[in-house]
């Protein structure tokens, strides 16, 4: 949790692979392969939900040479290419998505998505008179990072508790959120509570937009593999010692939820946006 945001997690993994490959002391290509494979599995195991992480690791750790020095160089170049692409993707998403933001829009966002924020801040910098309603995003309260970021841009922002989402939806024109993963059936996996924003937006006939780099799409869902939802420690919610007195109580803390494609109006990516509810890249 020191690195937040699925995109930043992906970039950090690519940097780790690159730096590891650069300093790796091995005598054979077999040893190089084994060590790269070992560190790749380790990195992937750190966060189970954000598909950007395995996608980044797979793209960064590719090589074809049988020569250690050449293979090392390939990994370094692939990792750098991924990092550069990820940086550019945020700018592209901001440009593409901000075209859909209208002057006067009130935008609701959830958690702390750099991709969603790129759309919002680009629209503001283009001169659009917008304001934002940001959820607190319990239990880690990443909404506090979002309001600080928006405040730095001078964007009028209102912080609300997660349970006030439906109450305020009548004041909203658009919901813009990020993505930890997108399945091939168009379903979104994002921070817990995203699906209640989508449901409330759907009920109130408000537009629901997702901002996601192409490396957030999950290739393994093509063959029906489910996306695992990370369940985090209960001490993020409650002092575990309280539970000692409450023998009939358990606490659950899923970090992400699923939003079905039918509640999503648009997915904005670095290669364009789509109103299609079923996306196959
Ligand atoms: P960007 C975050 O989760 C939030 O769920 C956010 O919507 C999503 O990643 C995408 O964020 P976490 O990975 O990649 O920090 O757009 O737990 O920054």
Describe the structure.
The chain is built from nine helices and ten strands. Strands 3-2-1-4-7-9-10 form a seven-stranded mixed beta sheet, sandwiched between helices. The protein has a three-stranded antiparallel beta sheet with strand order 5-6-8, with helices on one face. It is of the alpha/beta class and 281 residues long. It has helices at 6-23, 29-44, 52-60, 68-98, 114-125, 143-153, 165-168, 194-203, 240-243; strands at residues 106-109, 131-135, 157-160, 174-177, 181-182, 188-191, 207-211, 256-259, 266-269, 272-274. The model is unreliable at 277-281 (pLDDT under 50). Helix 5 (114-125) runs parallel beside helix 6. 1,5-di-O-phosphono-alpha-D-ribofuranose (RI2) binds at residues 4-9, 50, 111, 113-115, 177-180, 190-191, 255.
Attribute tags:
single chain; 281 residues; alpha/beta; 7-stranded mixed β-sheet; 3-stranded antiparallel β-sheet; 9 helices; 41% helix; disordered C terminus; binds 1,5-di-O-phosphono-alpha-D-ribofuranose
| Multimer state | single chain
Share in helix: 40-55%
How many helices does DSSP assign?
Answer: 9
**Unreliable runs, pLDDT <50, ≥5 residues?**
277-281
Shape: globular
Strand order within the widest sheet?
3-2-1-4-7-9-10
Task: Give the percentage of residues in beta strands.
Answer: 5-15%
* Series of secondary-structure elements, N-terminal to C-terminal: HHHHEHEHEHEEEHEHEEE
Query: What Rg do the Cα atoms give?
Result: 20 Å
Q: Structural class, judged by helices and strands?
A: alpha/beta
Q: Can you count the beta strands?
A: 10
């Amino acid at each position: 949790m020191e690195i937040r945001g699925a995109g930043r997690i992906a970039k950090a993994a690519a940097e780790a692979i690159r730096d590891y490959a650069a300093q790796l002391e091995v005598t054979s290509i077999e040893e190089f392969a084994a060590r790269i494979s070992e560190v790749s599995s380790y990195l992937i195991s750190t966060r189970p939900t954000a598909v950007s992480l395995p996608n980044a690791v797979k793209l960064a750790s590719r090589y074809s040479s049988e020569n250690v020095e050449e293979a090392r160089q390939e990994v370094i170049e692939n990792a750098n290419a991924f990092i550069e692409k990820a940086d550019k993707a945020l700018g592209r998403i901001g440009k593409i998505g901000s075209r859909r933001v209208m002057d006067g829009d009130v935008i609701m966002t959830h958690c702390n998505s750099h991709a969603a924020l790129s759309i919002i801040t680009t629209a503001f910098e283009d001169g659009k008179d917008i304001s934002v309603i940001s959820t607190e995003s319990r239990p880690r309260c990443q909404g506090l990072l979002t309001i600080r970021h928006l405040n730095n841009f001078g964007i009028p922002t209102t912080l609300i508790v997660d349970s006030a989402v439906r109450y305020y939806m009548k004041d909203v024109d658009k919901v813009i959120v990020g993505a930890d993963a997108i399945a091939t059936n168009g379903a979104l996996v994002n921070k817990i509570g995203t699906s209640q924003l989508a449901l409330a937006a759907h009920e109130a006939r408000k537009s629901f937009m997702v901002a996601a780099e192409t490396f957030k799409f999950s290739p393994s869902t093509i063959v029906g593999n489910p996306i695992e939802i990370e369940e985090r420690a209960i001490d993020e919610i409650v002092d575990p010692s309280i539970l000692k007195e409450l023998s009939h109580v358990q606490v659950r803390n899923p970090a992400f939820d699923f939003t079905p494609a039918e509640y999503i109006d648009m997915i904005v990516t670095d290669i364009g946006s789509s109103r299609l509810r079923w996306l196959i890249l």
